[in-house]
Every structure is written in structure tokens, then in C-alpha cells.
Amino acid sequence: MISQEKNSGNPGSPAVHARADRAHPVTLREVAELAGVSTATVSLVINKKKNARIADETRQRVTEAIAKLGYRPNAMAKTLVSGTSKFIGLVADGVATTPFAGQIIHGAQDEAWKHGYALLIANTEGNKDLEKDAIAMMLEYKVRGILYSTWFHRPTDVPETLREADFVLVNCFSPEAGAARAVVPDEAQGGQSATEILLREGHRRIAFINTTTPAPAKDGRLQGYKFALEGAGIPFNPDLVLEAYPDQEGGYGATDDLLKLKVSAVYCYNDRMAMGLYDGLRENGLSIPDDIAVVGFDNQEVIAAHLRPPLSTVSLPHYELGAAGVRMLLGLDAAPLDSAVKIACPAVERASVAVHLPA
């Protein structure tokens, strides 16, 4: 055994060659043979059984053998013993394939790593069978918990299999009171911030082009618009609220009705709508922001930062939604069941509002 230990540190030794040339994972038995102990002893050292009667010198030999051979413990075996794993699951209906909501994954992954966990991701594209299988797989892996996310903020039914795990809803919520912990964007605060960008520049007659699509964002962003006007002492005028389909064509199509309102500024439900409005205003010979100031919502950088002039907007906090979901799952943040935790939507001011802002 002594010669084995001496040879193990020699680059020409069989142990080192075995590690360099092997085509299979190092086994527990190989570690035991190199350390000159039983596989049971190696297992006790690996699993850090503090009450096991193992001499410090023996623990040291096992530790050195593990390092020399590059042994990796079987994660699934450890999971079966401990009843949990160092994985957090994320099941999403389309987050990974949308242009900006993928930040939810980024935020969740960064926060998970920070606390010693890895993220298992399943993108289901709304397929319920796939969703069921993904959750079942994560349960088999005994994940610490599951984040269940939707690509846009909406109410959702909690899958029955999800209730078998510790879970948090991200960017969605259960309409059933007290049914689930959830983290969502603060749409009303975002709408208020968007309107306040225009109010700070002295605009008093401000239109809002809302969506025709029922959603929490539709109600919340309108509520925020009203809050901002009220805070500035301006009576709410429902005639200044238009509705359009929430895309570029919808914004473009709303141009004529907007111009009839004789407003100096407009806040749009989203950036795509604002992009279409840019085209409509230019076709009418109007300049942004000299003739009319424009604010969007979402901060889709491929749109907002590259319009001319760049669009003032409000960010949806997707990265922070993912990170907050992980913190909530791990018990690091408060997680009330009676209401969703709301994450602030920060304003991003660019040159579509004030001439003095850099283009």
C-alpha cells in the first residue's frame, strides 16, 4: 500500500496514466483501491458523514485519491440519499424563444448559481403533454423547486403535477386566491412612470393608445396613466384613450384618430405600437419630439434604442423576475400567498420626449 501511495504522485505511475487515458468515469472502487480503504469508507468521506469513525489521516488519503483520479460523485445517488438535489427547474411556455423574455432564464440562472444551484430548463411552447412530462422529469430528479413561467404576464391555471413540488409562478399568477406564490411586473407603476416622463417635460394633454387585447397589462398600464395624471392635478379624460392592436400596424393605424385629439404627447401600450406610430406621424409631416412626444413600453432594445429618434420607454423587468423567483423559492425573499409580488418597471428616457436629450 505504501508503494501505491508513492507511485500515485508520480506522473509515470499507473494511477495517473489511468486517469489520463480512461474512457469511462472513475469509480468508487478505483478511489478505494488507490487510497487503500474500503468503498464504504470512501462513501462516508464523500458524503461528509461527520459521525463516522474515520481517522484524519485516512480521510486525507481518500481526499487525495479523489483529486488525483478526478472522481465525480454520482449526483443522482446523492439525491436519492438526501431527498433533494442542487437543481432548480424552470418550465416555460415560450420564454426561451421570445426576443426579450429570455431574460427571465438569464436572471434565474444567475441567481441559482449564486446560491449553489443549477437550472434545468424545459421550454414547452404551450404543449400540455410536454409540460406534464417536463414537470414529472424534474420531480424524478428531486429538484429543489420549480419556477413556472409564461412569456407574457397573464393569469394561469396551476398544473396538478406542479403542486407536488415547491414552486413559484413567474410572470404569471393564479386567479385562485391564495393558491400560489407569484412574482409579476408592476404594470400600474410602469404605466405611471411612462406618463410621468411626459409630464416632467411640461406636457398636459397626453393621449394613451392602449391594446385591444384583454390582459393584466391592459388594465394596469391604463391605471398607471390615470395615477400619473391625478398626481399632476390633471383630470382624466377618457376621450384621450384610444385602443389598437398591439403591433406596428396597430400603432400606424391609430395615427389619424390620434391627430384628431390635438395632443402634444402620447404614451403607447408597447414599443411595437410606438414604432408604427412613428411611421404614421412622419407621413403626416410631423417631427418627434418637436411636434409630438412619444413614449412606449417594454424597452425592446431591437426596437426602442434603434428608432430615430430613440424611443423613451419603460422596461419590463424580466431579468429581475427570474432572479426574484429563485430567491422566493429558496425562502430568501418574502412570498405572500394572498397576492403576487410586483417588480418595478424602470423608465428608460431617450430622445423621443425632449429635444435636449442625446439622440
Automatic annotation (TrEMBL):
Residues 1-20 are annotated as: Disordered. Keywords: DNA-binding, Repressor, Transcription, Transcription regulation. This is Alanine racemase. GO terms for molecular function: DNA-binding transcription factor activity; transcription cis-regulatory region binding. Gene3D superfamilies: 3.40.50.2300, lambda repressor-like DNA-binding domains. The keyword DNA-binding applies. Residues 1-11 have a biased composition (Polar residues). It comes from Paenarthrobacter aurescens. Residues 26-82 form the HTH lacI-type domain.
